[in-house]
Each structure stands twice: as structure tokens, then as C-alpha cells.
Amino acid sequence: MFPKKSLGQNFLVDGNLQRAIVEVLSIGKSDVVLEIGPGTGALTKHLLEKSAHLILVELDDQLVGELQLAYQARKNVEIIHSDFLKLDLAGLIDEYSKLVVIGNIPYNITAPIIFKLMTHPRPREVVLLVQKEVADRLTAKVGTSEYGAMSVGLRAVAQVEKVLNVPRTAFKPVPRVDSTLVKILPHYPPLISPQVEKYLRIITRSFFQWRRKQIQKIMRDHPDLNFAKNALEEIALDTGWDLSRRPETLAPTDFIKLASMVGKFLGE
Description:
Blueprint: E1 11-12, H1 15-24, E2 32-36, H2 44-47, E3 53-58, H3 61-71, E4 77-81, E5 99-104, H4 110-117, E6 125-131, H5 132-138, H6 149-155, E7 158-166, E8 171-172, E9 179-186, H7 194-209, H8 215-221, H9 229-239, H10 252-259
Parallel strand pairs: 2-3, 2-5, 3-4, 5-6
Antiparallel strand pairs: 1-8, 6-9, 7-9
């Protein structure tokens, strides 16, 4: 099987790392495990005995055929021939608290996959192999150059940690960059409502699009915000913040606090 560059395929060929990655996932007897892009089955073969119900979501036509041939006799394996980003997850499982997700995902669609997984309702646990640079952004400290909208958006709804560094030599073909395994645990119950999450996305996107500007200027002049002077004064008074600060100085908890306040100012 020749990896397809158009699908961002890089197959994990190191057996020790395959086992180590699967061991990170916490799987209960009644849990459903969903693997994104199983490819040649590098992780799948180690998941088989750990899961009572294993769902494999694969887009590649040839790989789907090979997976069906390999696992057709396994009653606990369900193979779905689909683009994960177009898949209706709600139709797969009734209890999302029993869904755990794992995947060696394509670098070029990492952000859309994470965004989809962090949309309500969320899996109980997500373990993803991502580009090291992305893992650094997800876990970046406040005030650093890596800290941005993705850092805030994810950590407002989940805990995230880097678990394992995976060198580029563990893949075939060998990519240009190293990878990192991240573990994401969505907050149960959620800390904020879907409406506040909506405001949070608007704010973080606006703030980090203009990250070199002061918060007060962004809130006043960004076309998605356009806060009036009295709104800025009220926010400054309620938070005690100096609004001449820049966006990267706000922690995820600060963004949550702001998102909880701004509905009346956004005209919704």
C-alpha cells in the first residue's frame, strides 16, 4: 500500500510506539472506541482486544477494502467508509460519555477535526497524534508566541496534555516534522453553556486576528465586535483589567469570564 499524499497519509510503523499510544487510552468494558483514519491498522490491531465495540472511520477506498477483509469476522468491529469531517457522530452512539476517540490524523486537517470533536456533545476522551507544533500551540503558556485562539478554545472546554513525543522516523513515508501524542479530556459537565462558547469563539478569533493590538482597540474597532465606549468602561470596571493589555496576556479563564459578559454588547 502506497501512502496517498492527497489524503495526508503517513503510516505509523513503529510497533512499540503503536502499543504505547493505545495504552494511553482509558477504555471501559462498555465504552465505544472510534478510530479516525485507521489506515493499515497500525493502532487497530492493538485496540481489538480492548474494546467491546470498535468503530473504524476510513476515507481511502483501497484501505477500506483491506480493513473489511481483515476484520469481517470480528463482530465487535464496525467499519465506516466516510470522511470523518462529514460524519454524523450523533447517529453512531446514544451515550457520548461512553465514547472515546483515537487517531493518527492528517496534519492538514488537525484543526477541523479537533473543532468537530469539541462541538457538543463531546466524547469522554480523545487521544490524537498531531504535529509537534500543533501540540505546542494547544498546550502553550499564556503570553508566549504559540499561545492563541486554538489554545484558548480547546482549554476552555477540556483539559489537554502532551503525553508522548513521536519522532518522524516512526512513520512511513517519513514526514518533515516530528509528532506528539495529546490527550484531551472534555469537561464533564461542561463549564460553560453552548451560548457562551459561541461568544468565546467570536472573541478569541477577533482578539488573535489582531493579537499585536491592545484589547480596548480590538473590542472597539474589530468588525465582529464594535463595542461602544460605555461597554468598554463597564467591562473594565467589572473585571478590573487594564484594557491596554494585549490578547496573549489573558488566560483561558479570563476569556471565559469575558465571553460570559458580552452577549448584551454583541446585540444577541
